[in-house]
Amino acid sequence: MNSKTAKILDYSLKSIVIVSFVFPFFWMITTAFKTYQETIQMPPKLFADSFMLDNFIHAWNSGPFMTYAQNSVIVTIAIIVIQFVIMVPAAYGFAKFDFWGKNFCFAIVLLAFMLPQQIVFIPTYLMMADWDLIQTLWPQILPFAANAFGIFLLRQYFMQVPEEIIEAARLDNASELQILFRIMVPMSKPALVTVALFSFISHWNSYFWPLVMTDTIEVRPLTVGIAMLKATEGIVNWQVIMAGNVILVLPILFIYLFASKEIVKAFIYSGIK
Fold this sequence. Notes:
The protein has 273 residues and is mostly helical. It has 13 helices and no strands. The chain has helices at residues 3-32, 36-39, 54-61, 65-96, 102-114, 121-130, 148-159, 163-171, 176-187, 189-204, 208-213, 222-233, 238-269.
């Protein structure tokens, strides 16, 4: 196979992969602006004749979507904040300190990283029920207070910081907290942004866990609200359902656009080994 044929094949395969990922989002966005007649038209139309916001207004007013959105924002931000409070010191300890049981504790972190949520949701639900927290937002927050992937990634990033820098800071009488927040954290910005973005996407899009852990509208997030929208609109008004999905996806797209460069830096310079 000559180089020209190889390039054509390479570009063709890449184009197929890109289209397979991008086209569903494209179809969702364009359908959100279509009328009912345009959604059932055969052959299908790629674009709406006129871009109207009626479907978004209909989707937003079909239920307490302000409550759903507020719950999603509170839960997601609370999880990220709590995770950072626990994750950053834990990763620093695993990366720069030697203590008894260090390898065992890190193995537990890796084990938690690999365990699926479905294994622990029943005992977690029973525990939250015993604490009378089911009708609050806490069952969607507390089980995710520690982020095993974040501890792992930050540990790898902290390990790349030269010991000479830390020793120089200690000679200047810097405390461990000062070293952590004035040296380690600023140097690890790409990894921190990556962990925050992954955590945001994971918990903003979470459906199964809040569906199990909530039983009232007042504490349900946007994902459950969108699923209920499909139940109320049936399988006919796809334009309204797609508008609801666009409302759900837009925050993720905006945040990713601002954080994509930091993600690339994190995986290039993390030195995972």
